[in-house]
Every structure is written in structure tokens, then in C-alpha cells.
Design brief:
transmembrane, single chain, transmembrane helix, mainly alpha
Length: 67
């Protein structure tokens, strides 16, 4: 079952890359814009992950205090 899940993930990633490549090629989307959106996306993702880790650590600390 794990191999099917991995195939689905790889297929999804390839479809996303193909869509971005099609947008660059057919709509003359500048590569600079695509890269700036990618950097912005990675920054937002890092902020979300950091906030989740912070809240997880806070909840872990609050649980440990009650014992």
C-alpha cells in the first residue's frame, strides 16, 4: 500500500511542475515571478512550521506543569 501512496505523491508533484512549466511556456510568465512566488511560499511555510512547533512546545510545557 505504501508504494501506491508514494506513486500518488510523485504523480502530484510532477503534475504541479508540469502546470508551472506550461504557465511559463504558454502564458509567457516570467521565471523571475515564479521564483519570487516560490521564495514567498517557502517563507510562509517556514513561519507556519515555526508557529506549530512553538504551540506544540507550549502545550507540552503546560501539560508537564500540571503533574
Amino acid at each position: 500500500m505504501a508504494k501506491k501512496s508514494r506513486r500518488s505523491f510523485v504523480t502530484s508533484v510532477l503534475a504541479c511542475v508540469a502546470f508551472v512549466a506550461a504557465a511559463i511556456w504558454s502564458w509567457d510568465l516570467p521565471v523571475r515571478d515564479v521564483l519570487s512566488y516560490l521564495v514567498l511560499l517557502l517563507i510562509f511555510l517556514a513561519v507556519i512550521i515555526t508557529a506549530a512547533l512553538g504551540f506544540g512546545a507550549l502545550l507540552n510545557w503546560l501539560r508537564g506543569r500540571k503533574k
